[in-house]
Amino acid sequence: MITNEKIYDYDFAIIGAGIAGVIAFYNLTKEGCSCIIIDKKDRSIPYLLCKLVCEHDFPFMPEIPKNNVDIFVRDHWTSIYASRNIEALVDGKEFGAPLGKLADEYQLIQWYLNKGIEYGGTIQWKHEVTGIKILKENAQLTLLSEKKTDIEAEVKKINVKAVILATGASGIQLQQDLGFQTPTILNSITATFKNDPSLIMKNIPADYIFRLHPQISLEGMLWLNRAIDYFNIGYVSSEEPKEMGIKFLRILQNYQPIQQYFKGLEKKIETLTVKDFHYKKCTKYPIDAKVSDRVVVIGDAAGLLYPLYLEGVIGAAASAKIASEVLLELNKNESSFTTQDLRKNEKLLSTRILNSYFKMGKISDEMFFRGNEKPPFTIWDAYLNSINELQQLRKNIWIAYRCQDLENYPEENDLWCGEQIYKHLPLSKKVSLMPFFLKFKFIS
Ligand SMILES: Cc1cc2nc3c(=O)[nH]c(=O)nc-3n(C[C@H](O)[C@H](O)[C@H](O)COP(=O)(O)OP(=O)(O)OC[C@H]3O[C@@H](n4cnc5c(N)ncnc54)[C@H](O)[C@@H]3O)c2cc1C
């Protein structure tokens, strides 16, 4: 029973049951801590969304059974990088191993939740955490149940030693109330199409496709991934969801390079409406402080996405694993979970991903999205031409997908790629973009 009389109802509360929250739930319950995971939604309701889990993510989620085909629906061998004019293919077969796996997000999350329950964890669906009071002896959470038509919302209080804030891009108010910065917030839109598996393979030329197109978005790619009997396509933008819905309809129904993907669909593309899309907020660029007294912020809430591709499984998994390690150690030492005690979290996060792989990600984000005085993305086109021409460049990309020790990520590979991109720029751009490229050499 949940009461507010005890000093602690649980050791830890995890707010948010996305990938970040459930990995923390698993890690903490597995070591015998009493934990509650709370989500304002019911995350046990199935949905179809496939996510790329790169090989370099797995060291942060070593427990996950990589051969479970319900979770990892296919190996991810091929990525196509595209612009308006050029397409470039990176194929793991060229170097003998896949780039990663395509994971059904729902199944991935359920696996971690079920393990957490097995280890004695508690789940609370459809409760929003509306306030957190940090007290000397504990953290006190206020939970508001979902309001039903005939029943008033119920308020609960629970007391814990420390809180993991894994609220993604939709818990910003809570985050701000606790004095944390918020990352940049963008909107994402996704469409999911079911189709015959053989048609999906025939129609879609790669496991993942990233297309940078100035008329679609100046903040992210039009992306597509293929599962087995469905595929997802979407993009990210700073535009409002309503505008994005109308634009996305136009893209799906008219943009020629993608029309082949929709052949043989049961639901005809002409019959789509804006209500068929899934809208979600997402974040970009890490916040500075990710801990304060009795609180650790992880995953999207902390902006932990590799910015160029909005690759967030890595940030979710790494920050969940690191936060769990730190909390477990402090719990053993009967800490009061002060900001000072929790600083180790920041240090580990910086060394394991932020100062290496993510640092290079920030540079490439700036290079491809901000390096063009105006669209169209000249540097991106030069990158695609380099991929097509240079096997070593394709190999460096393959290494980046697969690197098992991101703490020692080979930055020199990215620098070399940068030089090749510069060489592939049109002559007229070489002069104007020279200072821009030199700046990156110094930063790295
Ligand atoms: C469409 C899309 C496709 C993507 N594809 C990929 C990909 O292929 N590969 C990749 O690496 N990354 C991908 N990303 C990014 C990646 O999925 C995210 O970075 C990652 O899933 C974030 O997980 P999270 O747990 O931090 O947040 P979320 O998954 O957003 O979970 C946050 C949870 O917190 C709950 N919550 C929020 N506030 C409260 C509150 N006050 N009380 C209770 N509950 C609350 C929400 O209901 C939600 O369930 C994609 C992102 C999007 C949007």
TrEMBL record:
<dbReference type="GO" id="GO:0016491">
    <property type="term" value="F:oxidoreductase activity"/>
</dbReference>
<keyword id="KW-0472">Membrane</keyword>
<protein>
    <submittedName>
        <fullName>FAD-dependent oxidoreductase</fullName>
    </submittedName>
</protein>
<keyword id="KW-0812">Transmembrane</keyword>
<dbReference type="InterPro" id="IPR050407">
    <property type="entry name" value="Geranylgeranyl_reductase"/>
</dbReference>
<feature type="domain" description="FAD/NAD(P)-binding">
    <location>
        <begin position="10"/>
        <end position="174"/>
    </location>
</feature>
<feature type="transmembrane region" description="Helical">
    <location>
        <begin position="12"/>
        <end position="29"/>
    </location>
</feature>
<dbReference type="Pfam" id="PF07992">
    <property type="entry name" value="Pyr_redox_2"/>
</dbReference>
<dbReference type="InterPro" id="IPR036188">
    <property type="entry name" value="FAD/NAD-bd_sf"/>
</dbReference>
<dbReference type="InterPro" id="IPR023753">
    <property type="entry name" value="FAD/NAD-binding_dom"/>
</dbReference>
<keyword id="KW-1133">Transmembrane helix</keyword>
